[in-house]
Design brief:
- The protein is 63% helix and 9% strand.
- By secondary structure, the chain is mainly alpha-helical.
- The chain has a three-stranded antiparallel sheet with strand order 1-3-2.
- A hairpin with a 2-residue loop joins strand 2 and strand 3.
- Helix 2 crosses helix 4.
- The longest helix has 63 residues.
Length: 153
């Protein structure tokens, strides 16, 4: 066997691959052990939290009974999610655009929808979604304002 630079590099390469494989095995073994430890600790924390919450709730009841005050936790009332019927909004928009002779601004369209009882937290997004459902919408821009019209056949 001839021992030259290529053979030496190849042997070094094989040795490095074996070291890498051993390091990966060691890493995954240690990682599994750490994951198991984490799971055990989290389980114990949950157990302690459950027992503390039960004890804390009992203490709160005792305190409120002693004071004669029944305390209730104040929760913020979140605004309830309202589902928008975009097909209905699209129908209102198309009827309005058919009635109008000239292109209608986004503000005028929003005001008309508000009169029809369609209110949105973000009217621009809702109107754009409804406009995507209508065929033949022509959108033009004049300065900073958008204008919409319906293509007439």
């Amino acid at each position: 066997m001839v021992f030259d630079e290529r053979t030496a590099l190849q042997m070094t390469f094989q040795t490095l691959l074996k070291q890498r494989e051993n390091l990966l095995k060691q890493y995954f073994t240690q990682d599994r052990a750490v994951q198991d430890d984490i799971a055990k600790i989290l389980h114990r924390i949950r157990e302690l939290d459950e027992s503390d919450s039960i004890n804390h709730a009992q203490e709160q009841i005792e305190i409120s009974e002693q004071d004669g005050i029944h305390s209730e936790q104040s929760t913020k009332n979140r605004k309830q999610y309202t589902r928008i019927d975009y097909n209905h909004v699209a129908a209102c928009i198309s009827k309005f655009l058919l009635q109008e002779e000239q292109p209608v601004s986004l503000t005028k369209l929003r005001d008309h929808l508000k009169e029809q009882g369609c209110e949105f937290s973000n009217p621009y997004v809702a109107i754009q979604k409804a406009l995507n459902l209508i065929d033949g919408i022509i959108t033009s821009k004049s300065g900073r304002s958008l204008h919409f019209s319906l293509q007439r056949n």
